[in-house]
Specification:
Two copies of one chain form a homodimer. Chain A has about 170 residues and is mainly alpha-helical. In chain A, about 60% of the residues lie in helices and about 10% in strands. Chain A contains eight helices and two strands, in the order H-H-H-E-E-H-H-H-H-H. A two-stranded antiparallel sheet of chain A has the order 1-2. The first copy, chain A, is elongated and about 60 Å long. Chains A and B meet through helix 1, helix 4, helix 5, helix 6 and helix 7 of A and helix 1, helix 4, helix 5, helix 6 and helix 7 of B. The structure holds a DNA duplex (28 and 28 nucleotides).
DNA sequence: GGATGCATGTAAAATGTTACATGATTTA
DNA sequence: TAAATCATGTAACATTTTACATGCATCC
């Protein structure tokens, strides 16, 4: 069947992920969204204030998010939640096959495409160090969901296996 | 040993990759660089003119690239090559362990972190469709190096395996 | 009570996307 | 020779980073 009418403009990855985070929380502040991004294991989502606050403001202006002001002690804060349109947009984003299928960006994959620029031993050593670093230093996403940690480990180990298999193929020439 | 003195500012992924592409070619036009990006299997590097031309201009201004004007028929074009500084910067980028270790961005990984927002059958069906799409529709990088196609296939199959293993874990709860 | 970090942002600058413009060359 | 596409960009706009600003709360 055809995609039926998608939301006029579809969401970017950052937008979709932001909606999913807010949906998971039910309702939350931009600060909480930032925290999720900052605690994610990827280096690509900085969760910088200058990215998140304007993004959420845009989504509200489009009617995808709704907000409530709240007073906590002496401080005011703004809670956001999905509107009905927001729910639809999130659903579309979650179910969009083409974008979910994309293989994304992986810095080691990129570097391996230029394997011939390394010396043979150099490449080996580099990959070994990088995979060690990954296993030791890339923290699982901080979350109360224990499955996330498990799936993170699965992801890392498959990534390592892929890199090592590629290394073998490159050596055999 | 300490990193000794890195190049003052290190290269972004886009910059490093651009240098590697130019280095591989020996010397080439921005158009050729764009073509490599557009023929790469990832959706994240558009290779849009507005990204590449200014980027290369910046790198030249920094002294990392050198240029030569050339007349071909009635057309003028500019060829770029690495300077000595450029070679050093590329080497640093290729050998930087921390950035090579980063797990990057993967749209399916992102979506799986929100697995609880899908119905059980829905998630299954979605993942199946996406992996089918990936295998059928994501083209290997166009290149004269046959190894790239092979390593591309290896990458895809490991990615598929990771996603399917995660799916299993999520089902078992 | 001073330092550190939490929570809330804004502003300027860099970067990247989208859309346009233009002429040359190839192909149908 | 008309259409396509190659090759070269530029301009306006959108997004993101970096850096700053501010006040509250906590800990040392």
């Amino acid at each position: 069947m055809p995609q039926s009418k998608q939301c006029a403009e579809s969401l970017s990855e950052l937008e979709g992920t932001t909606l999913a985070i807010i949906k998971e929380a039910g309702e939350c502040t931009p600060y909480v969204v930032r925290d999720v991004f900052r605690n994610s294991p990827t280096e690509n989502w900085s969760g910088s204030a200058g990215a998140i606050y304007p993004l959420i403001a845009r989504l509200e202006k489009k009617g995808i998010l709704l907000s409530t002001e709240e007073q906590v002690g002496k401080r005011k804060r703004t809670l956001y939640r999905l509107s009905a349109d927001g729910e639809k947009a999130l659903k579309n984003w979650l179910l969009d096959v083409k974008s979910g299928a994309g293989i994304g960006l992986d810095p080691m994959r990129t570097r391996l495409a230029f394997a011939d620029m390394y010396g043979a031993d150099e490449l080996h050593e580099y990959v070994r160090q990088a995979m060690d670093y990954m296993m030791a230093e890339i923290p699982p996403p901080k979350s109360d969901n224990p499955l996330l940690e498990k799936t993170h480990q699965i992801w890392l180990s498959h990534r390592k296996a892929a890199v090592e298999e590629i290394l073998l193929v490159l050596e055999r020439g």
